[in-house]
């Protein structure tokens, strides 16, 4: 008999002749945090004040059974370095015990749910970042969705114009939180990143996130220490946060500032 350890999947395969017996080993809390910390060091763990992305919304989904786990962390934001509707992007970060790819981010895990409405192009042609004054609707996953960029509505929602002009950030934040269900990943998109069919175990719409830009690692974070312990033990009661959530975009003013 010989054993092989597959890095990245943390799965042990025991081979007996021509028969293969697969035995997945649940990671410890320390193993989970080590994976998250490694991704943070490699800039593939979510940074909510990422200087290249204006933050919009987040969601964290954990899948788990008795032997394996998967964490999908979504960060929806506006990227000024892409053009037009592609600036609205949802980046899915994957972590887990048996992944189909290395943990962190991958090009195929960027989702672009916003499209132009027929005969209603919202962006100024020159830069495709600032929007025209009469912009009022986009298509999200085939659905016509209206938004309100009037000064009164922007003030009511606490949305400040970045340079005094209407832009993609104002559009994105005007769509939230009312339309977050359309903007974040749909079940089938999440299922495509969950090839082993693990069941949903826990979902968070807000939490206290570490400030990775300022070198706060996931292992320093109450949130992720508790989540790692909960996942490793299977006890959801281990997640009992004492710190107030900070994932709202207003808490990360440096996001997109580079």
Could you outline the blueprint of secondary structure elements for this entry?
Layout: E1 2-6, E2 11-16, E3 19-24, H1 29-41, E4 54-64, E5 69-78, E6 88-96, E7 110-111, E8 114-115, E9 137-140, E10 143-146, H2 151-157, H3 168-175, H4 180-183, H5 187-191, E11 200-204, H6 222-233
Helix pairs in contact: 1-6
Could you explain the architecture of this structure?
This protein is of the alpha+beta class and 258 residues long. It has one domain (27-251). The chain contains six helices and eleven strands. A five-stranded antiparallel beta sheet has the order 7-6-5-4-11. A three-stranded antiparallel beta sheet has the order 1-2-3, with no helix packed on it. Strand 4 and strand 5 (69-78) form a beta hairpin. Helix 1 (29-41) packs across helix 6 (222-233). Mean pLDDT is 89; it is low at 1-24.
Structure characteristics:
alpha+beta, 3-stranded antiparallel β-sheet, 25% strand, disordered N terminus
Give me a quick take on this structure:
The protein is built from six helices and eleven strands. The chain has helices at residues 29-41, 151-157, 168-175, 180-183, 187-191, 222-233; strands at residues 2-6, 11-16, 19-24, 54-64, 69-78, 88-96, 110-111, 114-115, 137-140, 143-146, 200-204. A hairpin with a 4-residue loop joins strand 4 (54-64) and strand 5.
